Amino acid sequence: MVASSIGVLLAAVLLGGTSTIVTAAPVELELNVTALTPGIIDSDWTAAYYPKSGAAPLLLANDAGTATGGFRVFGLDGAPTLSQAGHVIAGRTKLVAPLYNASGAGDDFLVTIATTDSVVRLYSLPDLAVVPIAEPLVTLGDWNAVCSWGSYFFLFGKGGRAFQYLVRPADGGSFEVLEVRALPAPVVFVGCAVSPRDAKLYLTEDVDQDVYVMDVGDMAGQPTLKKVKGVKDATGIALYSSGDQEYVFVAQESQLSVYGPDWTLLGTVQLAGLDDIEIQGLSIYQAQTSTYPSGAITFAIEADATEGFGTTSLQPILDALSIPPNTAYTPRSEPTGPRTCARCSDNGFCPTVGCPKTCTSCLLGFSGPTCSTPRCEADCSGRGTCVGPNKCACDAGWGGLHCSFVLVEADRETDAAGGDGDDPAVWISPVSKELSRVITTVKSEAGAGLNVFDLEGKLVQQFTAGQPNNVDVIYGFKAGDRVVDLAFAGCRSDETLCLFEITSNGTITTIPGGIQPLPKGYKVYGSCVYRSPKSNRQYLFVNSKKARYLQYELTSTESGTLQTTLVRDFTGGSGGQVEGCVVDDRNSWLFLGEEPRALWRYGAEPDDGTEGLEIAVFGDGKLNAEVEGVTLVEGKTPQEGYILVSNQGVSSYAVYRRAEPHEYVATFSIVASADGKIDAVSNTDGITAVATGLGPNFPHGLVVVHDDANQLPEGGTSTEASFKMISLEKIFGGPLKELNLLDHVDANWDPRA
């Protein structure tokens, strides 16, 4: 594929230094890919590694695959195929970065963090040997961007979680990874590059795809963050250093936009050759190789029949823009950033001028005049003991962020089935509660449809459907002269409302009119259902990622054919991406999750208007990023019961009271079983719950949650999804027993009553 043209969107921006602004017509270029990785790799991120003198350069790349997850290393000078030099399976990850001279003795490391366990791992470069860490660091979050600066690295996740870390030698030949400080992250950053000379981070944002610049050189104050005006559609970012000037390359989708000082447009590049190209995770290698005389650009790429990593030559861009090549560049010669000082116990920073008795600032896990006293965030929430810098020894039954999560083991897990799962629902059998079923979605193309399980977690049925995202159950719907139960989902393969009949034995079948159209151009995402207590009419809610909510009335012809009518169209939340929702029928409330921001409540009737109530928001100390699933645990009265909300970024679930003002109760997470047979939940998505007693296995109700990485007892990760099944009593009992939460749920709730 040497001659394949790739529609790469790059933007080069001239920054710093003294330069003359030349007003000229924008330059137009065409750029070809030089090499691609073989096969299909679930790709997100690249980092070019500059070896010590005489060694070969490497392309460091993530692997987000379920069974192959970890990272890969490729020789950077190959063409047309990049040769794999290493593959470490350490759990699926989105991120990888090099750390130069992290040992202080010239040794380089690779840093990565797996989504399966949130553990920061270090490997030596270039041999990929495991680097021992004295105190393993577990940093909960859904991490989307990383960049390094000497022995520092910066990690950005969802829901405002962003930190700077320091890697340094510890006792006995091991190393330690310490939190330096929290960073401002009002949006979700998905691209990152460092300017060592200016002590700045260049960041790309997820939703609006804007570019931001953050000053990180001053350790005394909060870093400043500014959005760059006029630069849009960014999916990745990297720097090129040329003399006393730096150029910023911004990856987009199908063109190359070149900016000069003050972000003046200098030119564009339109490339072709592959269909449906998307690139991200941009990196630059400036040194000379036999294939790349002026260096190379690396990126994660997805295109028609292609997914993995690619490289392309820098030379055409440098020539066209008259950028002097700097093949002598090496990050080893760049400034390494502020250093801790002995006067601050090597746990803090001294001022660059003057000589005050106190330190300018301490690392995040230390305090005191000389930064010698370990401290813990939130004082371990009063449920543990601070035993080291931001390291809590939690009381029994507690864990997670600062010992603030109740830890619960799953009772069962479903058989592994299908590809990318998302959302569950529980169907309560009218024949016997013990014959109830768990219905789950498979939204990937591979295995797309609905899976049905019994209460032991055994697979009963696999039903093909058009990539359903969320699923809900409708009870007792009158279809012609029949009364039936239905499963409802928004189907992404053809952008439709999908409805299926649930038979008396809990299996799924088609029903006339089960596929209903949506407006042209509408892309379905989440969904939920509502039976009005005022009119007894049945409604369907569906949303798009752009927060457009549509409400449909579901009816039937006399012959039993389903039909839908649009009755309401509104924006949910503040306009950010939405997905999970649930309706409290008895109170006519629609609860919806705005993934990057908050939990909201709206009226569920068609004439309730568009004004919403913000119940909980990220940063309030209770709700964590990002909101995915939302479900209702029914109570005996409309004022009793609970709302459960899944927080994907930290794999936890927040509990709120159903009654106004929807008081926060607690947060729980699902950990691995003591016998090792059932793994912990990671990167969770959908959730459902019923309070109804379902026989001896779940006499006080059932909670079912999505698990993104189904880790196997014998090691490794399954390529197929599983869902965890947990007794409601186990969650509301244990450390929360004194709150008497089970007194306010309805173990006899009958959805058909």
Automatic annotation (TrEMBL):
Residues 372-404 form the EGF-like domain. SUPFAM superfamilies: Thermostable phytase (3-phytase). Pfam families: EGF_2, Phytase. Residues 1-24 form the signal peptide. It comes from the Eukaryota. Gene3D superfamilies: Laminin (2.10.25.10), TolB, C-terminal domain (2.120.10.30). Residues 17-321, 398-736 form the BPP domain. Keywords: Disulfide bond, EGF-like domain, Signal. Disulfide bonds join 376-386, 394-403. The keyword Disulfide bond applies. The keyword Disulfide bond applies. One of its GO terms (molecular function) is inositol hexakisphosphate 3-phosphatase activity. This is 3-phytase. It comes from Pyricularia oryzae (strain 70-15 / ATCC MYA-4617 / FGSC 8958) (Rice blast fungus). The lineage of its organism: Eukaryota, Fungi, Dikarya, Ascomycota, Pezizomycotina.
